[in-house]
């Protein structure tokens, strides 16, 4: 497999242990929602809260790479992280993810965050922000979620493009073959 690789559950826990609040917010949004980095960085506070300031139940993802937007439900874990991230931020036009200088976090800055994590935790050269997206797909599949549902969450047009996102565990292959023993 080329490109970014998915994170293991243990690696996800290790990343969570070392991230500050800002980095944790981005990591959890990418991991829990399967967003592309560009989609996450384009989010504003108003995209994740309603007019009363409550975190929304569903995120409307702007059209980016595919030219089509989509809706992704927010689970309780990511809603809690978003609640912390927007606490006290009343300007709905303000970027959700900001740099230390208060400006929208750039793709370069976010990529540096993942390179630092990769190096600090010894995760290998194939770990990047895109690893979160691949982890989302792989973890959902391992939990029995159908491919059409995963395709919809990630915003892929077809199943062929989704195939590159799902990592096959060699133990799953062995288990699948052994499941045919009773034929």
How does this structure look, described?
This protein has 183 residues and is mainly alpha-helical. The chain has one domain (9-178): Intergrase catalytic core (hpI Integrase, Chain A, Orthogonal Bundle), CATH 1.10.443. It is 51% helix and 4% strand. The chain is built from 10 helices and 2 strands, in the order ααααββαααααα. It has a two-stranded antiparallel ribbon with strand order 1-2. Strand 1 (58-61) and strand 2 (70-73) form a beta hairpin. Helix 2 packs antiparallel against helix 5 and helix 7 (130-142) packs antiparallel against helix 8. The radius of gyration is 17 Å and the shape is globular.
Beta-sheet strand percentage?
A: under 5%
Task: State the strand order across the main sheet.
Answer: 1-2
The CATH topology assignment is hpI Integrase, Chain A
Question: What gap, in angstroms, lies between the N and C termini?
Answer: 32 Å
Q: What is the CATH superfamily?
A: Intergrase catalytic core
Largest sheet: 2 strands, antiparallel
How many helical stretches? 10
Mean pLDDT: 88
Q: Count structural domains.
A: 1
Determine and state the CATH class. Answer: Mainly Alpha
Reported CATH architecture: Orthogonal Bundle
Helix and strand element order: HHHHEEHHHHHH
Helix content: 40-55%
Q: What is the assembly state of the chains in this entry? A: single chain
Rg, alpha carbons: 17 Å
* Shape annotation: globular
How many beta-strand elements? 2
């Amino acid at each position: 497999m080329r490109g970014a690789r998915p994170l293991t559950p243990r690696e996800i826990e290790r990343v969570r242990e070392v991230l500050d609040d800002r980095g944790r917010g981005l990591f959890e949004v990418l991991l829990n929602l399967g967003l592309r980095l560009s989609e996450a960085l384009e989010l504003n506070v108003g995209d994740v809260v309603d007019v009363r300031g409550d975190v929304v139940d569903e995120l409307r993802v702007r059209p980016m790479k595919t030219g089509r937007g989509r809706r992704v439900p927010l689970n309780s874990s990511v809603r809690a992280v978003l609640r912390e991230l927007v606490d006290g931020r009343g300007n709905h036009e303000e970027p959700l993810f900001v740099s230390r200088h208060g400006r929208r976090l750039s793709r370069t800055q976010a990529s540096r965050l993942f390179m630092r994590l990769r190096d600090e935790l010894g995760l290998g050269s194939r770990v990047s922000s895109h690893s979160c997206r691949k982890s989302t797909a792989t973890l959902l599949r391992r939990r029995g979620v159908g491919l059409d549902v995963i395709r919809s969450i990630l915003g892929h047009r077809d199943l062929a493009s989704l195939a590159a996102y799902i990592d096959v565990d060699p133990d799953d292959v062995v288990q699948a073959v052994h499941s045919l023993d009773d034929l």
